[in-house]
User: Fold these one by one.
Assistant:
Number 1:
Amino acid sequence: MILPLPDLPSFDYIRPKSYQQVSELLHQQSEDVRPFMGGTDLFVQMRDQIIAPKILVDVKLLPGMISIEYDHEVGLHLGAAVNLNAIAKHPEVIEYYPLLVEAANSVASYQLRNRATIGGNLCNASPAADMAPSLLILEAKLIAVGLNGERVIPVNEFFRAPGENALERGELLKRIEIKPPPEGWFGKYLKLGRNAEGDLAIAGVAVLGFPDQTAESGYRFRIALSSVAPTPIQALKAEEILNQGPISEESIEAAAITSRDACQPIDDVRASGNYRKAMVEVLIRRGLEEVWSAIQVGG
Amino acid sequence: MAKHIISLTVNGVREYVEVPSNMTLLTLLRERLGLTGTKDGCSAGECGACTVLMNFEPVNACLTLAVEAEDAVILTVEGLPQDGRLDPVQQAIIDHGATQCGFCTPGVILSARALLDRNPSPSEWEIKDALRGNLCRCTGYTRIIRAIQDAAVGGADD
């Protein structure tokens, strides 16, 4: 075991002048250059000698990286370097996307959330990323910028493997775009940790539902999971059970079991794989029951 | 390794320092400016012993670069007393005997100060939530929470 060091390994800190400059640096020296925002994971990995970048580029200083914009037509645009407390405190996020507030507040501690960013949470591509399930069910689009300009990556194509994301050489995550919330929707993020909150998740589940006449049941549900597979995942088969309906205790139970079966969890210091699967079933059932009671028309 | 000349305000005093890229705010405060009230516990953002206020918000100084503090306003535990009087949170910690070894105490005090600045009368749950990032291995937290409740009431009376 490597003991914590009082200081960080050597590197050069750079304040970039433009996105173009960042892309050029990332393209030319991708092994040695890392974008840097909150540092809450990056510095821990550097102290543990997992990575040893020679240059850190402080990309949160670039225009738009810490902006939060909401518009009824367009939805929510979050700069990649927006910190988690800024999300949780933003009046329009609180009003229109309370699910994101729940997810943000479930991460670590208040002081860490002043530094930890939404883009960092996604780009680290941890199976346990707390923001990922909510963004999956909100069908977020991730805007990457590279040498050839901007590119849209749907969030469900972003996570490739533990620690691996879909960014290509020279690309930087710039912005997260989320559509306006569907009419009558309700969402819930349930996170099970070893303590009440703040720890990495043993299992995290995000559930969303809203009335939708194009679904056979009259309602559309979306379900996503973290900490139970190599990447955050969607439980599409379980969603389909509910979309076909009818919504009942039995179909909710079937969706919970189907969600459990979608998991491929590992055993680790936090929990066994079997425990994770059992808990996913419980969390999904709780989440679905809560969402269902909130969205029923005339219910 | 690159060096950077920065200016920042620490406990009301303007400082001009040259720092290497890899120097943390924690090292700048402790080793360069001699402000050893801020502690180095885990160097990983878990324990909160290094909590300081950066532009009025708590951060883990072990995970913040010194160079990022350019033009920032930093408050450490040494800067809390005003005109020779302890901050109400500091006084309440003493009055309640809410410290044993004392290593976590500066971080706890700054997290509590920031909490009371944004929420002058927090509930017990809100206090616990705000202190989630400050580990104390001695007290069991009960006296710390009572002290902060007392400081909140005391602050309202001022």
Number 2:
Amino acid sequence: MVTFKIERFNPDVDKAPYFQTYEVAAGKEMSVLEALFYVVENLDGSLAFRYSCRGAVCGSCAMRINGKNRLACQTLLKKLKSPVITVSPLPHLPIVKDLIVDMDHFFKNYEKIKPYLVNNTSAPEKERRQSILERAKIDEMIACILCGACFSACTVAATDKKFIGPAALTKAYRFWADSRDNLGDERLALVAGEHGALRCHTLFNCAEACPKNIVPTYSIQQLKGGLVKCRFSKPAK
Amino acid sequence: MKKAALLWLLQRVTAVLIFIVLGVHVYRVHYVELGQPILFAGIAIRLKSLLMLVIDSSLLFFGLFHGLNGLRTVLLDYDFFDRQEKLLSWVLSIIGIIFFILGVKGLWAFIIR
């Protein structure tokens, strides 16, 4: 048996979040998400949490497990090596219910960076081709599944509500550095200003939290360099 | 956009410059007359050297800029200060100017009376 301490909060009933303890009959290869299913099916059907793919692709089940932001579906109980597992919602985000947080602010920031390729040149007969090296530049950033673990771990995003956040900045770099995109300085302007890429304090909390082992700080530093170069060339629109 | 990028760059540039001038300052103050007693006359000689005055004044300027700009960056993380960004920048600039004048006055005391 493994003891699960799960943070509960129903804004309609509770004044503040509290922890509830459950004893889970843990299987050898059980993940935290499967343990949560066990709780819902056998112990308490009122527990609310978000999930979808169960394969670390959709990013829905990001939550704080034993003090670290992780994906519940890819976190195996045996890897945690702890008789007591504490599960709480992603910090610094408004709680909708129990382990479900409101990601509205996160996705609004994501929309700000125009998360799609923009190319105003006439389309070629076939595809816009990319060399292996061109693709390698953005390979890591493409793996981002927008789970919000980095955004929630970022202390700057926690205090500065206007800060665009590491996930959106990683994606901004991904499109800016993409050889098929030609938005250029205009794309940089989307992450400029006091609350854009330059606000990052280089704390690496985002890199530590990322379940896909992406280092958002690298992308952010590249954007900062681009912004400084842009400052001494032509002004961005 | 321009101001933020410029201040970010200057924060890095001043960090490198502090490293250089602080090295010269520490070397001159602590290692040139190593083992000898610290005397008023010795300090007076150092503070009459134009090169050392320029080095020490530069250290003061870069240090103040780096420290106060860093403080501005941290304070702007908070909504309260962010709403008063212009006022904050002015207040920190004035504090910097006052401390620079006071410091220069002390450093150049043996030359300008």
Number 3:
Amino acid sequence: MSRLRNSRLGTFVGRQESVLLLILLAYGLLVGTVNPTFYKLDNLFQIIRASAGTMILAMGALVVLASGGIDVSFTAVAIFGGYATVRIMMASGIDNILFAFALSGIFGMVLGATNALVIHRFRLQTLIATLGTQSIFVGVMTLIFGTKFVPVGDMPDSIVWFGTEPMLTLTMPGGAARLTWFVVPMILMIVLTWFLLNRTLIGRTVYAMGSSREATERAGAALWKTQAFIYMYVGMLAGFMGIVYTAHVRSLNPISLVGDELFVIAAVVLGGAKLTGGVGTVSGTVLGVLIITTLQTTLILIGLSSSWMRFFVGGILLISVSIMAIRTNRENLRNLIFHSE
Amino acid sequence: MGSGPAYAGPEPLFQEGRLMAGRYVLQVKGLSKAFPGVQALDQVNMSVGFGEVHCLVGENGSGKSTLIRSVSGSQGFDSGSIVLNGNEYTHLSARQAMNEGVQVIYQDLSLFPHLTVAENIAFNWMVRDDVRLIRPKEIAARAKDALIQLRENLDLTGPVKNLSMAQKQIVAISRALVLDAKIIFMDEPTTALTRYEIDSLFRIIHELREKGIATVFVSHKLDEVFRESDNITVIRDGKKIGDFTTDSLDEETLAYHMTGRTILYTPYEYTADANRQTPVLEVRNLTREPHFRDLNLSVCAGEIVGITGPLGAGRTEFALSLFGLNPPDSGEILVDGIPRTIPTPVAAINAGIALVPEDRHVQGLHQKNAIRENLVAGVLDEVTKWGLLDSDAAESVANSWFEQLSVKAVSPEVSVGTLSGGNQQRVVIGKWLATRPRLLILDGPTVGIDVASKSTIHEIVHELARQGMAIIIISDEIPEVYKNSNRIIVMYDGVFIHETNREDIDQEGLRTIVEQGVPA
């Protein structure tokens, strides 16, 4: 928990975040050495733009993982929110970016509530439940709103504006640096997630639940309330992401996005969260997402095709998670503990 | 029944000058609770005074847990009432019980391993008072305050998973203090503690008593906690057998009250074979730093060697070394006179060594699987053909052990998790016997098993030894080691400090050596 960060060097080295930060810096150095044009503010802004959507989804995934669950339906929720909202805006003529976020967020919360209900009511494993709802969400969306591709020309103006117009333009030697509006929802959601997880009872209950469900119940916490919060919050974030994504690509294919959820979960795990729950930080998740999107956007700068991206993401994930696992195992063996928690 | 001396009630420690109604923090009056087919509680009465240290004793399934669940409001009762601080309840909710200061510390402690010490201490309070926004300083202050009350000091910002068992217990007790506990139930609190840690637990309980907070231990063994308590309540089959003062009971009377019958302890007799055989196991100068050093031991066929000593003496670590889970730094292990290196459990099994581990729940059994599957888990290569399970072979192996060890279950297809502790332990023993070991090591063979089942486990072990198996029993219960071994070794701080035949020592002499850590 970042508020309890201890400044001693020993704990700094032991933290997943510091390892990630080093990886990120080392990679930045490598790219910059191969291709000096990398050191431009505009490139940094591009990375932020490219990571905004994943970042928002990752915040949601972090909350679910911390609670000991796993959600694979959030990409379906995002595309549902984005596509439904765009179709409704096109049909109704309401053309306002705040309206888009609000509507998509509400869609997301409703779908998230469905997840929570299914998980809690039937006591299902979260992975199984959300695998099921992922298909259902996509199915319901295409049944109601069709599968028509929305080209740039049909896209509501406010969304196109949100995706193209910079919030801030800095004139720099060697070209202007444009900061996207995406940075606003991204930062807001990072801060909000940090605050909820670290400064509220419900957030601590999420971690408590991921640590020990039984103890949480014995403490008198209402697990269904926590579940409802978790999945509705994830849904809302996914809804917001649906709009960011739509603005990013500016055209909308209702069968896109689903399938990328494992990338997002990988980023969160890379950031130090555990699939067994109770562990994971906002700062780690931010770094995890930044590493993955930096790879995504910069491989081309060092002369590698983007096909290498998946290879590198997988490699980094395996290596960093293995290092942590080996460290834990060694410690357990030293203490003669033969089962993992 | 009820043959103990007349019970005059606890001496009230705090009566006047306090806002406490009466002398009792808790009175249970005629409490009854039935489950389908079982009368779990039948007209039970019990009283606990302010600041009293009380023991609640009974076999598994005697109704102890039902009583605690009723008093803590997590389960209803059919008739009777519960009086807390003078307020009488015929229905008690968990919230009401908590507000009256009832706290239960379960054996698993119900902590959150990944949260910090401060958060663990404060979490239940936050939930109770619905403290929605967290101020880390306030949480730290509350946690600190509780620790100061116990005169303990812990790093508030470290995660609880890095703490020792004793420290975790301190966290659990602190949590109860933050919730203004007036009576704390502790379920088997000393099971996982070292001698030193038990002493410090007593000190904490003393602090609680000073504050007028009552402690109720739930236990079924007559251990140190017993001697620290003022009064004992014994229940059996849902009925209260009686209240006793601690000094009026010894172990045998207590066992009688708990089980309703006299349990005969037949000590194990070993007659050495005249033509001295090669020992099944011989250990020479075995060392594994920092766990143990220079251990020498030999165990012959038909012998039961008991190893005792305080928790943390290195007993379990030694057993793990013999079983390939804690490879020694130096020294020799000989099985039937042949030097062996045992780097893995598979090597141990091949050498004819089996280990019944201390923690049978996690290490000994596949809880969700059937008894049959557990029984053949150690001999899978014998019950498979071409990599496929030969279910006839598996069934016959399983059935034979199921019957020989008289596991009490409807059939071998029942899942192990549903069995009582004693029956689970029989399954673990059966699983290892199926590997036909020459040497059987039992680490804490009756931990958490009630008196009656204990003696049947011991009988099984005696019979195995008579048939020619070499056996090592590791236990911190001195009577268990004393009565079931023909030779006894006391381990202290990683060293064997004393070795003796049973005939040459009495139980009290043995206890003295264990407690003082020096040979008599």
